[in-house]
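Example 3.2
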Amino acid sequence: MPDQIHLTVATVIHRDGKFLMVRERDRGREVINQPAGHVEPGETLQQAALRETYEETGWRVELTDFLGISTYHAAANGATYYRVSFAASALGEDRHAVLDPDIIAAHWLTPEALRAAPELLRSPLVMKVIDDFLAGRFYPLDLVSNLHHGDSA
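Structure, written as tokens:
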């Protein structure tokens, strides 16, 4: 039984052969990740993906596809992460955005650069969703439903 369960989202943004990635601090070390983070109470998965992407990169994006759900147990902290991943198109960068304090910088990186430095990836999920994207494993966004109190299933 895991000590903690975390519901997170990640956004895969591809442009000109590169992916929008963040360099961030995680428990005292610098790592590379997609724009990603925890879903907040009352927030849809899609809203969380858009918010996290903006807060971590300053980029506004449009979600285009659902990439899937991945589970990862992190031995370092005993937590189990349920990661819901989306593909998105970049709409524009807000160069005045104030990024989350754990974010060092946002970078556009090639898959080859990411594969060359696996020790820098925050978790194995980073390459997994990029590989899913590159393999064309896209699903319609409407696979993720958002019901509100009073809605009928």
